[in-house]
């Protein structure tokens, strides 16, 4: 069994999930910033980064608790690795998630897994009860990264 604590902070939402064996979502929590940015007519990068800083610790603690894992000071939760989105996205926002995830991985002596934002969208289809068979065609609609992608075979 493998358990991964995963972070997503590439744009205006902070997401933390606990995934078991690459397929089972034990927790998946998201804090949106839509209302904060609405007055500006779009995402303000500096505000987004600061909101991630406020949200990431309490969200991580809540995601671990929801997954039935402890997040007490001085204690290492029963996770096998820590992952985070490493791009593309807003640099400041990405750095918040990456820095927090890398710090946890280092402190807990666990491997760190960098995740490409668009590949994360593609492989999220494999969390479904009936994942697609290779080859398949995927439409990724994610901010400015809208793409139609032919997925011939996995490379990892």
Keywords:
156 residues, Nucleotidyltransferase, domain 5, five-stranded mixed beta sheet, two-stranded antiparallel sheet, 7 strands, 33% helix
Structure report:
- The protein has 156 residues and is of the alpha/beta class.
- It has a single domain (3-126), classed as ATPase, nucleotide binding domain (Nucleotidyltransferase, domain 5).
- It is 33% helix and 29% strand.
- It is built from four helices and seven strands, in the order βββααβαβαββ.
- It has helices at residues 34-38, 45-66, 91-108, 117-123; strands at residues 3-8, 13-20, 24-32, 81-87, 112-116, 136-140, 147-151.
- The strands form two sheets. A five-stranded mixed beta sheet has the order 3-2-1-4-5.
- The protein is globular, with a radius of gyration of 16 Å.
- The chain starts with a strand and ends in a 5-residue tail after the last strand.
- The mean pLDDT is 94.
| Low-confidence runs | none
- Quantity of strands, as a count: 7
> What is the CATH superfamily?
ATPase, nucleotide binding domain
The average pLDDT value, as a whole number, equals 94
Which structural class do you get from the secondary structure elements? alpha/beta
Topology:
Elements: E1 3-8, E2 13-20, E3 24-32, H1 34-38, H2 45-66, E4 81-87, H3 91-108, E5 112-116, H4 117-123, E6 136-140, E7 147-151
Parallel strand pairs: 1-4, 4-5
Antiparallel strand pairs: 1-2, 2-3, 6-7
Helix pairs in contact: 2-3
């Amino acid at each position: 069994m493998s358990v991964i604590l995963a972070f997503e902070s590439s744009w205006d939402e902070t997401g933390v999930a606990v995934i078991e064996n690459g397929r089972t979502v034990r927790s998946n929590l998201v804090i949106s910033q839509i209302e904060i940015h609405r007055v500006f007519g779009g995402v303000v990068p500096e505000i987004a980064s600061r909101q991630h800083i406020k949200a990431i610790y309490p969200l991580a603690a809540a995601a671990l608790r929801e997954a039935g894992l402890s997040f007490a000071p001085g204690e290492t939760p029963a996770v096998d690795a820590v992952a985070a989105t490493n791009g593309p996205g807003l640099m400041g926002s990405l750095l918040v998630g990456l820095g927090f995830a890398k710090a946890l991985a280092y402190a807990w002596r666990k491997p760190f897994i960098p995740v490409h934002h668009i590949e994360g969208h593609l492989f999220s289809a494999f969390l479904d009860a009936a994942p697609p068979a290779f080859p398949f065609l995927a439409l990724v609609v994610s901010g400015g990264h809208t793409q139609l992608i032919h997925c011939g075979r996995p490379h990892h």
